[in-house]
Write a structure and sequence with these properties.
about 500 residues; Glutamine Phosphoribosylpyrophosphate, subunit 1, domain 1; six-stranded antiparallel β-sheet; globular; binds iron/sulfur cluster
């Protein structure tokens, strides 16, 4: 996984892809501030949530300008671009694709004209009733006999569909349209959107993905994670509640409830996805991960000489494991901090020669030692297999692997792209078979209940579906799910909303 911040450990093998978050969102309403630059820095802090494309929409109260492009935030924007995006409210988006291919047309924020102005929107999450919504929109279009501008989706993402639905209400405001449309959407959606003079934020009734509100001296900020508030100098105000829509304009912050809250926050955000310097539901992610490591040590102790993290995402768990076990903590693996910046993969021949692009063992630390290696999760097992082999080659006497989450057995349909079910190693192998497959002397995972207790969130208020297969938001038939559901060659009713002439008036992005 190429995460621009170099925080994580699933990308240690060339070509190996770890769990991918479905986007980071940011919004700011602050007259007198350089809102495009604030959004840029906010997105920079959220880069780990999506590295495929980035975009910013800005309004000066008269028109919305959008700039979006494929690539990392630092590659998409420069001083000149940001200077040209002037206004007093902005939203931004860093994308990893879940519904809709990774192409410019699906980059966000989306933009379209409405009967009452313009709308731009950014989405973190993934809808589960995309096909049903697309069918309804198509029927609406067919009934009206024409294609009003607001009803013409111009790309194949569920976000574009949401934008079209919000825009398809002539005669009422975006805020009123949102109160009609949001209750009909299912799945995970943490949204930031804007019209020409108002910033909006909304979170699905389960609050699956995080979304927070922060205060600036001169205005307000919304962001996927509290770490993005810190980076722009905003103070944390509160979480946007599940089922809540907020609107921010010159009258301040208005709040409405569009659906009753049924909290099911994503447990995997605590394990791996969120930054360690973020707080989820008021609790530090780093502190939670350290506590999980302590619990892991008590649940699965082992005689060893050193505890070594798989950098960087295994580090807090390893710290906790060392604290609770009394076994010294050591850095035994060095990660190249710039590894996320290269797009050149080594050839198969170079891989077979054992190229260590991303990680190198510290032989003098490892040699002759019995090691406990702590990692946050196992997806396919390839990364852990490579690490165990590398440690043995560097002279480790024993390698014991401890994982600070339970086995990942089920796919996620709420915005995280792990792998297919068949690719998940724990889906078809026992823990002992996995141990053998990765070549470890022992392998243990923390239990689900122990992990949940460390979060201080009630079990019933968490989504744990990738661990226990209990999906909190009903899923449609498998053929009505999937990344390419709305692609042009899809013959389903969703195919009706294929590409038409772009309605991106005022946008500056270049296809
Ligand atoms: S299935 Fe797993 S990754 Fe997806 S929302 Fe639930 S806990 Fe999070």
């Amino acid at each position: 996984m190429t995460r621009g911040d170099g925080l994580l450990s699933h990308d240690l093998l060339p070509g190996e892809k770890g769990p991918q978050d479905a986007c980071g969102v940011f919004g700011v309403w602050a007259p007198g501030e350089e809102v495009a630059k604030l959004t840029y820095f906010g997105l920079y802090a959220l880069q780990h949530r999506g590295q495929e494309s980035a975009g910013i929409a800005v309004s000066d109260g008269r028109q919305i300008l959008v700039y979006k492009e494929m690539g990392l935030v630092s590659q998409v924007f420069n001083e000149a671009t940001l200077e040209s995006l002037s206004g007093y409210l902005a939203i931004g988006h860093a994308r990893y694709s879940t519904t809709g291919a990774s192409v410019w047309e699906n980059a966000q924020p989306t933009f379209r004209r409405t009967a009452t102005g313009n709308i731009a929107l950014g989405h973190n999450g993934n809808l589960t009733n995309t096909a049903e919504l697309a069918e309804r929109l198509a029927a609406q279009v067919a009934e009206s006999g024409e294609l009003p501008l607001g009803q013409m989706p111009t790309s194949s993402s569920d976000t574009e569909l949401m934008t079209a639905l919000l825009a398809a209400h002539p005669g009422i405001s975006i805020e009123e349209a949102a109160m009609i449309e949001l209750p009909k959407m299912r799945g995970a959606f943490s949204l930031v959107f804007m019209d020409d003079d108002t910033l909006y934020a909304a979170r699905d009734p389960q609050g699956i993905r995080p979304l927070v509100l922060g205060k600036l001296e001169t205005g307000w900020v919304v962001a996927s994670e509290t770490a993005a508030l810190d980076i722009v100098g905003a103070t944390f105000s509160r979480d946007i509640q599940p089922g809540e829509l907020i609107a921010i304009d010159s009258n301040g912050v208005r709040t409405q409830t569009f659906a009753a809250a049924e909290p099911k926050a994503c447990l995997f955000e605590y394990v791996y996805l969120a930054r360690p310097d973020t707080a989820l539901d008021g609790q530090s992610v780093h502190a939670t991960r350290v506590e999980v490591g302590q619990r892991l040590a008590r649940e699965h102790p082992v005689e060893a000489d050193l505890v070594i993290p798989v950098p960087e995402s295994g580090t807090p768990g390893a710290v906790g494991y060392a604290q609770a076990s009394g076994i010294p903590f050591a850095q035994g693996l060095v990660k190249n901090a710039y590894v996320g910046r290269t797009f050149i993969s080594p050839s198969q021949t170079l891989r077979q020669r054992g190229i260590r692009l991303k990680l190198n063992p510290l032989r003098e630390v490892i040699e002759g030692k019995r090691l406990v290696i702590v990692d946050d999760s196992i997806v396919r097992g390839n990364t852990q297999r490579a690490i165990v082999k590398m440690l043995r080659e560097a002279g480790a006497k024993e390698v014991h692997v401890r994982i600070s989450s339970p086995p990942v057995k089920w796919p996620c349909f709420y915005g995280i792209d792990f792998a297919t079910r068949a690719e998940l190693i724990a889906n078809n192998q026992t823990i002992d078979e996995i141990r053998e497959s990765i070549g470890a002397d022992s392998l243990h995972y923390i239990s689900l209940d122990n992990l949940i207790e460390a979060t201080n969130v009630k079990k019933d208020n968490l989504c744990r579906a990738c661990f226990d297969g209990v999906y909190p938001v009903e899923l449609p038939e498998p053929e009505l799910l999937g990344k390419y559901l709305l692609e042009d060659d899809d013959p389903t009713p969703a195919g009706l909303i294929t590409s038409t002439a772009p309605a991106v008036i005022g946008a500056m992005g270049q296809p």
